[in-house]
Structures are given as structure tokens and as C-alpha cells.
Design brief:
The chain is of the alpha+beta class. The chain has 5 helices and 11 strands. 29% of the residues lie in helices and 25% in strands.
């Protein structure tokens, strides 16, 4: 979609994607502010709850207000059913990318990173939100390049499968449904993701620290 305009956003560059959506670097046509634009386009192959998760992510991330959680500026849809989410553009790399290049980090550096992750999780949990997918790929490190400069300012991303108290009655997570990433998800998430609480995030953060 590079070169196209979606609603108020000029799409500049593809950043990444997978599953049922893509993320682009985009620019607001009026304010000229650069954002990360997450886009989900309608598809017959798309699970019916994808849009619900998209709305959950927008509401959850925007409601917390913590410097270590990705900022959400705007959300909406256009006539053809394409939904978008305009988020803070993080210039850096994910912890997963850093680990892939650098391998094991020092105890001091790992500790600093995980403390900022926990700071974000405290804010989320106080707001009644359980992330449910804490993993290196969802921990962005602003100002950090693999093998290069390490600013390591944490930005927690991807609240698409979060459990929010104010959305607890939605059908997005059905009884007995498991959610999360194998290897990082707490055991109880495999039994009934709908019933997990903040302790599942703490478990996953502990696995990330071990990794």
C-alpha cells in the first residue's frame, strides 16, 4: 500500500506484518506527524474476531497512559471495511531482534529492560488490563539497533489479545480458548485464557528475563 492514502494518512513505507495485518510508516496529511499505521483489511480467510481484537488493542493501549506502553493516537475504518490504528512510531528494534544478533545480554542490561517492562505491566494491571502475550517480539527498544547503540527505552506493544476488565463480556476470548505464544505463555493460558489474571503476565516476563 506504499504511496496510497488511507483516510488521513499517507502510507510511506512497509515496516512489517503477519497474520492478518500489516504495519506501515505513515504521515498524517494535515499535521505531517509520522506514525506507525497498523492496518487490517477484510478477507474471507480472516477469523471473525480479528476486528474485535483490533478494537481491543486500540482501547487498551490508549487507556493506560504509561511512557513504556506504545501510544495510540487514532483509530478508524473506511468504506471497504479496512480498519486502521495510528500509533507512536518507535525508532529502534524489538528485544527479539536484539537477542537474535547479540545473544545473551549482561545481567545489568537485562535487568534494566525487564524493570521497564514491569513498570508498563503495573500500569496495565492497575487499569484492569492483562496483556497475555509478553514476549521479546512485543518489547520494542527505542533508540536501540542490534549490535549497535543501546538506548533500550522499552515500549510494550501489541495489546491485540489483551484481557480488559471493561471488555470482559465480549466474545473475543471464548471459554476454554488458549491465547499467547508457546514458550512464553503461562500454563493456565492453555487451559482457559479467559480466566487468567495479572500473574500470567508476570510469568511471561520472567520467561523473557530468563531468555
Amino acid at each position: 500500500m506504499c504511496g496510497q492514502t488511507l483516510d488521513r494518512y499517507e502510507i510511506v513505507e512497509w515496516i512489517g506484518g503477519g497474520g492478518f495485518g500489516a504495519v506501515y510508516r505513515a504521515r498524517h496529511t494535515v499535521m505531517r506527524r509520522e506514525v506507525a499505521l497498523k492496518i487490517v483489511r477484510p478477507s474471507v480467510h480472516q477469523p471473525p474476531d480479528v476486528i474485535e481484537r483490533f478494537v481491543t488493542e486500540a482501547r487498551a493501549a490508549a487507556s493506560i497512559g504509561n511512557p513504556h506502553i506504545i501510544g495510540v493516537f487514532d483509530a478508524g475504518s473506511i468504506e471497504n471495511g479496512t480498519h486502521f490504528l495510528a500509533m507512536e512510531l518507535v525508532k529502534g528494534s524489538s528485544l527479539g531482534q536484539v537477542l537474535g544478533v547479540e545473544g545473551r545480554l549482561s545481567v545489568e542490561r537485562a535487568g534494566r529492560i525487564i524493570l521497564e517492562v514491569l513498570d508498563a505491566l503495573i500500569a496495565a494491571h492497575v487499569a484492569g488490563i492483562v496483556h497475555r502475550d509478553i514476549k521479546p517480539g512485543n518489547i520494542m527498544l527505542e533508540g536501540t539497533e542490534p549490535g549497535g547503540p543501546a538506548n533500550d527505552f522499552v515500549k510494550l506493544v501489541d495489546f491485540g489479545i489483551s484481557k480488559a476488565a471493561y471488555l470482559s463480556d465480549t466474545p473475543t476470548t471464548k471459554t476454554g480458548m488458549s491465547m499467547g505464544t508457546p514458550g512464553y505463555a503461562a500454563p493456565e493460558q492453555y487451559l482457559a485464557a479467559r480466566n487468567v489474571d495479572h500473574r500470567a503476565d508476570i510469568y511471561s516476563a520472567s520467561v523473557v528475563l530468563y531468555k
